[in-house]
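User: Can you fold this complex?
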Amino acid sequence: MRLINPRLALPILSLAILIVAVFWLQPRAMSYVGINLLFNLAVPIALATVAQMIIIMVNDIDLSMGAFVSLVACITAAILPGNPALGVLMLLGCVLAYAALGALIEARQLPAIVVTLGMSFVWGGAAVLILPSPGGTSPVWLTAIMKAKPPLVPMAIIASLLIAGVAHLLIMRSAFGVRLRALGGNARAVSRAGRSTVRLRAMAYAVAGCFAVLAGMALVGLTTSGDANIALRYTLLSIAGVILGGGEFTGGRVSPIGAVIGALTLTLAGSFLSFLRLSPDWQIGAQGAILILVLAARLLVRQAEKRT
Amino acid sequence: MTLHRAPWFWAWVAAFAAFLATWSMSAGGGGGAALAVAALTFGSFSVLTGLGQMLVITMGPGNTDLSIPATMTLAGTLSLKLMGGMDGGAVTVLAGLLSALLIGMGVGIANFALIRLLRIPPIIATLSASFLYQSLAIWSNRGLRIKPPPALAEFTTGRDLLGVPNLAWVALAISMGFWVLLNLSGFGRRVSAIGQNARAARLAGVPVARVSAATYVICAMMAALTGFLLACFSGGAALNMGAEFLLMSIAVTVIGGSSIAGGNSNVPGIWAGALFMYLIVSMLNSYGLGAGVRLLSTGVIIIAIVAVASGRKAKP
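Assistant: Here's the predicted assembly.
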């Protein structure tokens, strides 16, 4: 077995280059507080990216991720502090809704892009109903976890390692994960082997829903309030994170560790762009450009591999 | 082919039902003409974006243009900026229209170049490129709201012929062009052939790359034209003006009976889908529902229609 998966080489390299660039531009970031500030917001993005990765792993794409994370944030901020039982029930309902979505897509052979685009309206509408104007509070225990200051290593780094580890064990090392990846690789073979594709896709969506719920909760723990539009940009960020992390769009070839690295890279890219004093007008465009550049770099690497 | 077997038949039935339901809600039932005019006006924008999206979707699974909203904003912003510095005569209008169409052409070529050169799925290519277009629009706009030339504002909001909105006539004329293109031209047959089986089409000698390049360019030009007209209609370009047309363009295609899996599409259904979508939203409005419920029901209705209309049974 090789020490480092070649699929991870490019993501690790891009993260390393970006870290060096940020420290070079802003040497004061090279401290406990600085690193925590740089990577703080990466935790919810990493969770959302893992969720998106699971959807992409089964050959779908989720265009409602941002709206869903926003809805979870609204539930967490508006209902969970005052009425924990109802809040937990609603969050469970969100996960079940995701599972139902997966079952519907597989049973009727619908294009996930259309269904999730429609669902983004449903999540957005529900979020507005629950929290008409920005507000709410974060449950005390949630803020305590997210803003904890463990010795030596900042919380953001510990959380990222934890997310990568759990996702890696679940997707790459468990029999359950193998079955889900097989669904993306060859759905017909899975079905011929006697597995229900409807149930498998529902499970994949449910697991993705769990990670997305955690993303929304983590976000509220950091921002301490909710808003129906708080996480809309997560849709792009999560897709970009999966691709930056070496995931493929088809065939169930993904990398959970890569996805977390991709999310960290994207968060850092945001700080890097603001250190460069780039006009905010170009922030969105720069993310699109980074995405295109990474895809181009990957194509070059692959062609070089083919030639040798 | 009998009428009720046509793929667009049920979409039209649904549109009429939605019209009657909304009409009966309005006080005294006298608002029928006003409702029809509004539906035709706003429906025209959905029709124009839907026609382009339909052509792209016809090319088969994975082919969807997600850059429509950003293209609309970019074309609307830049063409109005150009016209703002001119005298407002016929030359101004022509320059604005041409610039919008050229922007659309450029966007389409850029989209296809990304898809082709980087070999990435069209969804990702158009999505990432759309953020560049959006940034370009934000950067050039600078929060200014430039008014369109009075002649264009009057034309887009007017009803000069038979009391039907001018925009609806424009959309109708372009729809007829699309109908001819899709049903009578070799190009339309090639697009359908690629959607039914890209491999078979290539082996049969269809220039797949050239045909798909053309569809992406046409789609982007339609989006640019819609952005231009919408900016003139609403008295200026806004940065979020294209937002709802991403889902709308896909929804009207699917509701109209075109296959989401590609290879089979029709123009009359686009109109039915566009009118239906507008009427459903105004029906929810006339019930006096809040924004949250309205969003929620729009999403549920679209998914329900897609599930019923375009679903195939899972392959054994």
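Chain B is about 70% helix and 0% strand. Chain B touches chain A through 49 residues (CB under 8 Å).
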